[in-house]
Task: structure prediction
Amino acid sequence: MTWNLVSLEAQPEQSWRNGGGTTRELLAWPQPGEWSIRISVADVQASGPFSRFEGIERWFAVLDGDGVVLRSAFATHRLTPESEPFRFDGELPIECTLAHGPTRDFNLMALPGRARMQRVRGAAGVRGPAGALLALYTHATGAHLRSGDEAVTLPPYHLAWTIPADTQVVQVTGDDALWMEAFP
Result:
């Protein structure tokens, strides 16, 4: 199994239409513009509404900063870099308020019910289903992946991803990494 590595810093910044921040797209699978899975990191400079994505489920995690408050008609959620990733319907109107200044946030978008994301702090064994897009993002510190005889060391600010033909048991070690599984 081969892991593809993507550097956050090598990806171009894309300004938001509302001027509230920028995004760096790490992966749009199977292709940009017609993706069923999208992974990105956003630098949020101002409070404002989230972009809406019909027919998409979103996973959101704060990486840096004091956090955000996300409000919908149904609930309010305060998220910080210590919070577990938050999952919500991409069609839902969400208002984002910065807690105390800019944040850097991570986004996983996929078809509803087809993805999951979790934080890994320390060591974790995860099972990656055959045919799923498996990914690990490292932020301020690096991480290590081990699957069978293959070992990969990820430097900070990198995404590693693969689509295995067989179910994989992957050992992940890192201080604060994000593990994802998504079915195309």
Q: What stands out?
A: The first strand starts at residue 4 and ends at 7.
